[in-house]
Design a protein that fits this description.
Number of strands: 25
Oligomer: single chain
Largest sheet: 8 strands, mixed
Order of helices and strands: HEEEEEEEEEEEEEEEHEEEHEEEEEEE
Strand order of the largest sheet: 5-4-8-11-12-3-7-6
Strand content: 35-45%
Length: 346
């Protein structure tokens, strides 16, 4: 059986590709993440400007904006053929982070459209299931690399544009949070370390899903549903929280969760040299919000609420008035993840 070449291109080079597609039957070998590959022996799907922002580079997300969209080496696509048949890409052309990517398959495809899924890091999925983790480990602050292992996923459509040529457009399925903590108390924040953040809700935030078949909103077919996510920061060593206002580079925390209406409660646990030997707790409950798929919501929160790990109010002492602080939490309008789609969600 002759193996056709299915090639799609990034938005930026679409015009060049369409003028050259008639000669694609004799493509020369190209360099991939696994070395040199003869593309005439593979079918190829290439994304159109809507990749995943999960690399260890923070790609231009800032307060109340979207983010740039990139793929990274090791990413993999899965074609949804039947409920019990998913075909994964063999390799890709990714040797570095890139806004577009080619994914190579050892099959011949000729349908007008194919359903395509990205299911996170290829070592964390079997081509069917995505698991949103109860524990999400983030090491450097302001970093999204961990999302690929704890629920980041996407779906899209591969569209045939010519014989043996497809383009793929994708959008993310989960909702994402960027949490930016700070401490308004000038004494308490000196040397303060944020150890972790627990996020709880009035309904499911995590679970195991066959997203190709059921998506994320059909919870009747999900497994291991839970309404809590625990962010483990820097292997348990924590991030500094000695900033008086939000400081994304210093301690921004990224979380992936199930979309939908949630009343979220964020519990921040931190330490301060001013109160040695105790873990302090700040609890913030947000209004009921519809967290849309493919959006990132910024949450700016003051941790200067003085509760210990047993949730007991710490009494007055020293130079610090240890009373409950009614400093607040700000939720910024959540933004679509891609820079081409960073309008406010409606």
């Amino acid at each position: 059986m002759k193996r056709n070449i299915i090639q799609t291109i990034s938005f930026a080079v679409a015009a060049l590709f369409l003028t050259a597609c008639g000669s694609d039957d004799n493509l020369s070998p190209s360099t991939t993440e696994t070395g040199t590959i003869d593309k005439s022996k593979y079918t190829t799907f290439t994304s159109v400007n809507e990749g995943m922002t999960r690399s260890h580079y923070i790609l231009n997300h800032s307060l109340n904006t979207g983010a740039d969209i990139w793929w990274q080496p090791g990413d993999k696509l899965w074609l949804y053929i039947l409920d019990n048949l998913r075909i994964g890409s063999v390799t890709s052309n990714l040797t570095n982070v890139s806004a577009s990517a080619e994914f190579y398959f050892t099959y011949d495809f000729d349908q007008p459209h194919y359903k395509v899924n990205y299911l996170g890091n290829q070592n964390s999925t079997d081509g069917y299931f995505v698991t949103f983790g109860e524990y999400q480990w983030q090491y450097p602050p302001n970093n999204t690399d961990h999302l690929q292992n704890v629920g980041d996923c996407a779906e899209g459509t591969a569209t045939r544009v010519a014989q043996g040529q497809y383009k793929v457009t994708m959008h993310r399925l989960p909702a994402y949070l960027c949490i930016m903590p700070y401490c308004s108390d000038p004494d308490l924040r000196t040397g303060a370390i944020l150890k972790g953040v627990t996020i709880t809700a009035d309904n499911a935030l995590r679970g195991k899903f066959d997203v190709g078949r059921y998506g994320l909103f059909d919870r009747t077919h999900a497994e291991n549903l839970g309404n809590n996510i625990n962010m483990v920061l820097n292997g348990g060593n924590g991030f500094p929280v000695d900033n008086a206002t939000e400081d994304q580079n210093r301690n921004a925390i990224f979380t992936v969760m199930l979309p939908g209406w949630h009343t979220l409660t964020l519990t921040f646990e931190f330490t301060s040299p001013k109160i040695p030997g105790q873990t302090l707790r700040a609890v913030k409950t947000l209004d009921n919000i519809d967290y849309h798929p493919n959006t990132i919501t910024d949450i700016v929160a003051d941790v200067a609420n003085y509760y210990n790990a047993d949730n007991n109010l710490i009494g007055d002492g020293g130079t610090i008035a240890f009373s409950k602080k009614q400093t607040g939490v700000i939720v910024r309008a959540h933004k679509d993840w891609g820079t081409l789609f960073n309008k406010k969600s409606k």
